[in-house]
Amino acid sequence: VSSTARKARKAHFNAPSHLRQKIMSATLSKELRAKYNVRSIPIRRDDEVMVMRGQFKERDGKVTQVYRKKWRIHIERVTRDKVNGQTVPVGIHPSKVVITKIKLDKDRKALLDRK
């Protein structure tokens, strides 16, 4: 890990997919934080989140896609209508959401136990 800003930015924006997953973490809600004693966790597809910043603030829904290439997540009901009438999902950065319900499987459970 470099302390040079230029190298740190290069490493961040050229990060491979498996490292992007880790970088694309979101904080847990107060209840989940108390329950698991964990502050944040990498986000995944079926987690339920609440948007905390921007024009979709306070909107909640299920994560439909984790778009690692663009560093964004797509959430159901967080959409925009295009001029031609088509609806498209609006990408939200995972740091601007809080996880309200975790999709638990054995790997995720093991991760929480480790942390």
Name the features.
two-stranded antiparallel ribbon; 115 residues; single chain; 30% strand; 28% helix; globular
Structural description of this entry:
- By secondary structure, the chain is an alpha+beta fold.
- 28% of the residues lie in helices and 30% in strands.
- It contains four helices and eight strands; from the N terminus they run H-H-E-H-E-E-E-E-E-E-E-H.
- A hairpin with an 8-residue loop joins strand 3 and strand 4.
- The longest helix has 9 residues, at 5-13.
- The two termini are 22 Å apart.
Can you lay out the helices and strands and say which pair or pack?
Blueprint: H1 5-13, H2 17-23, E1 25-28, H3 30-36, E2 40-42, E3 48-51, E4 60-67, E5 72-75, E6 79-81, E7 87-89, E8 97-101, H4 106-114
Parallel strand pairs: 1-8
Antiparallel strand pairs: 1-2, 3-4, 3-8, 4-5, 6-7
Secondary-structure-derived class? alpha+beta
Distance between the termini: 22 Å
Helix content: 25-40%
Main sheet characteristics: 6 strands, mixed
As a whole number of angstroms, the C-alpha radius of gyration is: 15 Å
- Which regions have little confidence, pLDDT < 50, spanning 5+ residues? none
Beta-strand fraction estimate: 25-35%
The total of helices stands at 4
Question: What is the H/E string?
Answer: HHEHEEEEEEEH
How much is the average pLDDT?
Answer: 95
Number of DSSP-assigned strands = 8
Query: Major sheet: order of its strands?
Result: 2-1-8-3-4-5
- Shape descriptor reads globular
Oligomeric state, counting identical vs distinct chains? single chain
